[in-house]
Amino acid sequence: MHSILAVDDSASMRQMVSFTLKSAGYNVVEAVDGQDAWEKAGGRTFDLVLTDQNMPRMDGISLTKKLCESPQFKATPILILTTESSDQMKQAGRAAGATGWLVKPFDPNKLIEVIRKVIV
Amino acid sequence: MAETSMDSSSAAAGIDLSQFYQVFFEEAGENLEQMEQLLLELDVTAADDEELNAIFRCAHSIKGGAATFGFADVAELTHQMETLLDNLCRHELTPTPAMVDVLLQSGDALKAMLARHQGSGGAEVDTTELLFNIRAMVSGEAPVAALTPRASAPETVAPAAPAVRPAPTTGQRVVELQVGPLSNPAQADNLLELFKEITDLGQIEPLPEAPGLHGVRRFKVSTATPESDMMDLFTFHVSRDQVKFVAYGDDAGQAAPATPTADPGYGFFEPVADAAPAKAEVAPETGYGFFDNAPGAPQQAAQAAAAPAAASAPTPAAKAAPKVDKPAAGGLEASTIRVSVEKVDQLINLVGELVITQAMLAQNSRSLDPVVYQQLVTGLTDLDRNTRDLQEAVMSIRMIPMSTVFSRFPRMLRDLANKLGKKVELVTQGEATELDKGLVEKITDPLTHLVRNSCDHGIEMPADRIAAGKPEVGTITLAASHQGGSIVIEVRDDGKGLSREKLLKKAREKGIDAPDSLTDQEVWNLIFAPGFSTAEQVTDVSGRGVGMDVVKKNITSLGGTVEIDSAEGYGMRVAVRLPLTLAIMDGMSVGVGEEVYILPLSSVVESFQVSAEMIKTVGGSGRVVEVRDEYMPVIELEKVFDVPRFDWEHNSGIMVVVEAESGRVAVLVDELLGQQQVVVKNLETNYRKVNDVSGATIMGDGRVALILDVASLVRRSRH
Q1: Which residue stretches of B42-188 are H helix?
Q2: Residues B545 and B596 in one domain
Q3: What residues of chain A, 22 to 41, have a C-beta less than 8 Å from chain B?
Q4: Are B315 and A109 a contacting pair, CB within 8 Å?
Q5: N or C: at which end does chain A have fewer Cβ atoms within 10 angstroms?
Q6: Residue B327 falls inside a structural domain
Q7: Helix, strand or coil for residue B565?
Q8: Lowest mean pLDDT among A69-78, B326-335, B577-586, B681-690
Q9: Do residues B393 and B412 share a domain?
Q10: In terms of domains, do B503 and B515 share one?
Q11: ipTM of the complex
Q12: Contact (CB<8Å) B23/A24
């Protein structure tokens, strides 16, 4: 079973994402912000990291950067959930080493659809 | 690959987003509260990035959830707020008090919208003006290039947003109307009829079914009718959540907040060779994308293969799914239920009766031989404990912290101070003090009045304050605390205080008998006289002099008292004291002669046996007792209540030290009978007000005992 680290500071989004992923048969570990995710990521691996962009303490881009710099997560796909689809955000995501982005709002099916493309 | 993708999509198709609504509402409520607090604390002249970011994040978070869960109005407003805040964070705009105002008003509007979505009713919230104001602030002061590269062209018609572009909702416009998914698409023909019947509605033309939206009827509508009015008409034929307005002919901007589920567009960062059937599907920059060569990014071929599969599995979450995985209610764990206060009161009443019955049983069983009735006695002990626990649990339902009352004041005071041109800071203390919900509701209005009064009449204009050598910013303090068996809520200000001369003069003008010999306390109390107002000018803030007497009346009706202290030039303090009129309390029963009295246990400090030489007479009649080098006034209950004595030999020999209003007295009684819970019955409503008595109760043996008002006993000792 694939494991996904879902990072979002909003409880409702986190629950929605987590529930969607679990219904689709994934293992989900939730984190409330980048810092929390970074702490939870230590000592284990994930098949995918799904992170919100705008969060307190550590945002999605910083988390991506940190994960990509660590040998353990160098090859882990990272998707950034964002409400901004601006080029600026995309460039920042690309520079940080993210695999892709998904614009909010999205519906549960789309999320699964995108994830199926990344984790086969 | 294609099959896998399809299967997985359908597996998740049945997810019902409404299961997350409750969490979203709670979260949005918290965010709104936090935002309001941050906005109130924001120093406009020196806003730091961290604060602005925190405010931005609140709006952003609400927007994300609202858009995801389909609350279009909330999403639209938060989106505009976010745009403004984003400009502030990027220093493209500088914060102004007007911006803070508009953001606060938006917060209020959002609260109303959320309440509406939660089903608590209320009128539809009109945000036209708010949206207009925010947009004006964003576009009026910032260069167009600030945030939205494509905003420059269509700005005049519908101010474009960067990520989401809602359909215009008012004015003459052309929009696409989507109805469905419908089990019977012919249902939507009713709408065509509707437009025929009501010509003012505008023009409607059917559009071909979109490939990505199965069972959804599309229409092109040219109209000047507000969206909400159309919605009201449509709902006669189709349910509200099946109707969506989207921008007509707008492919890239389909990700409107109103239509998360109708979003037909998604595409790839890299153009896909095998063009997907829906035209919107090849539109870049929608939905999601992958970066080249990033870990795990799908290859071109995989994308091409997946695209048609994904297209054939459209994603209306609202679509009735054949098999809905019923979730294990995980999303609603933290939920609450709303119960009418009457039900809670009924429960409390019943528990009250139960407590009396239990006390009666306990008393009657004392004469039983514990050896013979061992099981019964054990059972009664358990009953005692369970009753107590039950009662605590039931009472706690009604208890809410004072912070729920206090939290409304920062905002109110800010608006008020702005209106008056004053500078006021609010300090709150003892917010965790719990108070019965019934009392909280009734005390809110009087407190509001007192705070308004302090701001309006108490705090001086900034210039006057500086001239008087005071800090420019006035302080109003709200403090709550439990004192003995009552709750004291104080409203203090460091304003100009009450003027003895002015009050006396005013009283005489009003024809009130006010001799110079009145004590300060009596002079202050003059402001409670009906029709008395101390302000030279009547303002629209503190009312027209009907204020204080009404405040006093309201508090008195709760069985409370109001005390005023003031020093001219230094401020004033109004203390509202509410007796614990809760249905049940812990009491210590004491015997005097044949009578039994109850002392609130919370006010009892200690008790001890006293000998005659410990009691000393001072100043003729006053008697004091020495306790550990401290002299305390003695109150002889026997004399206070004229208890008849048949037993002349007996002398009271027990002192119970009680505390109230930061004063202590020693109450002289015959014996301590024990402590127990008593059900408080209001004496005033059943008989009349009796001095030094706060209520009555029925004892286990059926006798009536008076509950003593300790605060009143302490006050008695001071005179």
Answers
A1: 49-69, 72-89, 97-117, 128-141
A2: no
A3: 23-25
A4: yes
A5: N
A6: no
A7: strand
A8: B326-335
A9: no
A10: yes
A11: 0.83
A12: no
**Whether residue B383 is found in the same domain as residue B416:** no
Query: Which pLDDT tens digit goes with each residue over B493-515?
Result: 998 888 888 888 888 887 877 78
Q: Can you say how many angstroms the Cα of residue B469 is from the centroid of all Cα atoms in its chain?
A: 38
Name which residue leads in pLDDT, B168 or B466: B466
User: Considering only CB atoms, which chain B residues are within 8 Å of A20?
Assistant: 12, 15
Q: Look up residue B254 and give its amino acid.
A: Q
Q: B538 falls in which pLDDT band (50, 70, 90)?
A: very low
> What does each C-alpha distance from B683 to B209, B440, B517, B690, B707 come to in angstroms?
74, 22, 35, 8, 9
Q: Are residues B611 and B676 in the same domain?
A: yes
pLDDT in tens, B355-379: 878 888 887 888 888 888 888 888 9
Task: Establish if B325 belongs to a structural domain.
Answer: no
> Quick check: B294 and A113 CB within 8 A?
no
Indicate if B519 and B655 belong to the same structural domain: no
- CA B199 to CA B203: how far, in whole Å? 8
Q: What are the CA-CA distances from residue B146 to residues A49, B83, B150, B648 (Å)?
A: 32, 10, 11, 94
Q: Do β-strands A48-52 and A3-7 pair in parallel, antiparallel, or remain unpaired?
A: parallel
B573 & B633 share domain: no
Residue span of the structural domain in which B382 resides: 341-400
CA distance B238 to chain A (A): 23
Dihedral, B593, B596, B602, B604 alpha carbons, nearest 10 = 10
Q: Is A66 helix (H, G, I), strand (E, B) or coil?
A: helix
Asked if residue B471 has a cis previous peptide bond (ω within 30° of 0), the answer is: no
Evaluated on CA atoms B189, B192, B198, B200, the torsion sign reads positive
Q: At what angle do helices B49-69 and B21-41 cross, to 10 degrees?
A: 160
Tokens of B687: 């008989």
Among all residues of chain A, which has the CA nearest to that of B86?
A84
Give the CATH number of the domain where residue A59 resides. 3.40.50.2300
Query: For residue B181, which amino acid is it?
Result: P
Tell me, yes or no, whether B184 lies in a domain: no
Q: Give B49 to chain A, closest Cα distance, Å.
A: 13
CB A94 to CB B291 under 8 A? yes
Give chain B's domain count: 4
Q: For an interface test with B, which of A18, A45, A104, A118 has the most B Cβ atoms less than 10 Å from its Cβ?
A: A104
Torsion of CA B203, B208, B213, B215, to 10 degrees: 90
Please report whether residue B167 resides in a domain. no
One domain for residues B66 and B152: yes
Of B160, B194, B225, the position where a domain reaches its end is: B160
Instruction: Out of B533, B560, B579, pick the residue that ends a domain.
Output: B579
